[in-house]
Amino acid sequence: MKRPLLLASASLALWACGGEPEFTQPLKLAGGKEISPATLARGKERYTLYCRACHGDLGDGRGPAGIGMRPPPRNFTEPAFKFGGVAAGELPPDEELVRIVKGGLNGTPMLPWDVPEQDLLDIIQYIKTFNVIWTEDEPGEKVVISDDPWVGKEAQGVERGKIVYHATAQCLKCHPAYATKQEIWDAAVIADGEGSTRAFREGMYYPEVKFAQAYNNNLLPPDFTRHPIKAGSTPKDLFRTIASGIGGTAMPMWKDAIPDEDIWAIAHYVNSLYAIKDKPEAAELRKRMLEQPDWQPPAPPDAPAPDGAAPPPAEPQ
Predict the structure, then answer these.
(1) How do residues 272-314 score in pLDDT, each as one tens digit?
(2) 112 and 63 in contact (C-beta within 8 Å)?
(3) Burial of 232 (C-beta count, 10 Å sphere; 0-12/13-18/19+)
(4) Nearest alpha-carbon partner for 47 in 136, 137, 107, 129
(5) Is residue 209 scored above 60 in pLDDT?
């Protein structure tokens, strides 16, 4: 359950007069685990060694090395987690936090960390003391990553993904469109049985800035031919992100909203776009999109001819 920002209470680490947290009692955290004072103390020690410089003494992302970083370091006093592998707004289980730390976030100052396993687990318990939500809520269920139905027929998956991206899921409402307006119209015909311009927006070939209230910041959805994909660009990584959504942002959870087959198709399509990132093919695609001729939606088959236009030829008898 998604909650507003909460302050750590006396049930968590009490801040002594000198500003240092004291752990004197076991702490029951999300998942029913009882964490010993010794584990929390070790976690604090390792956090200070590995994490404090960017994430800060208070876990608020304001460490001395984090000043000026874009995006800024994670604020652990906020309850939202972006890439937790669970439904947007849920708390991630420990194994998902381990995955994020070990894998890093591409294109950000958060690099992959080769931290000893036990140190990392202790750090994870310690960072939970920065927000009381970890004593009140349970971790969410990991989003199930189903088998990829497009293995061995990836090209077909890319073609299907292009249709789902532009018509069914309408990803171009936030991310750029990568198809001409006629192609998007045709994709809607395939997806819905009729053409539509409902997903069109001004500047549709560029990403649309979105305000993320959970982070009190404007976020720019990635252009997959120009920007890094933070949580991984393999089809499996992309499936996880698309299926679970990104907590605290405009990116919704797509699991159960559309079939897994179509989520996998989008993943293959986005992967194909990322494969040409910063290459001449990406520049050519952008040029073709931005220089396409003026376009008007096709008239319905039974629409009257415009004034002065010749009537359609008579049907043969």
Answers:
(1) 999 999 999 999 999 999 999 999 999 876 655 555 555 555 4
(2) no
(3) middle
(4) 129
(5) yes
The answer to whether residues 236 and 145 touch, using CB atoms and an 8 Å cutoff, is: yes
Cα–Cα dist 191/295, whole Å: 21
**Amino acid (1-letter code) at residue 314:** A
The rounded distance, in Å, linking the Cα atoms of 43 and 76 is 14
Report how far residue 91's alpha carbon sits from residue 141's, in angstroms, rounded to the nearest whole number: 9
Q: Quick one: which of 46, 268, 48 has its CA closest to 154? A: 268
Q: What are phi and psi of 226, to 5 degrees?
A: -135, -25
Helix, strand, coil shares, percent, the chain, to 5: 35, 5, 55
- What is the percentage of the chain residues whose pLDDT exceeds 90? 71
Strand 14-15 versus strand 21-22 pairing type: antiparallel
Residue 59 has pLDDT above 90, yes or no: yes
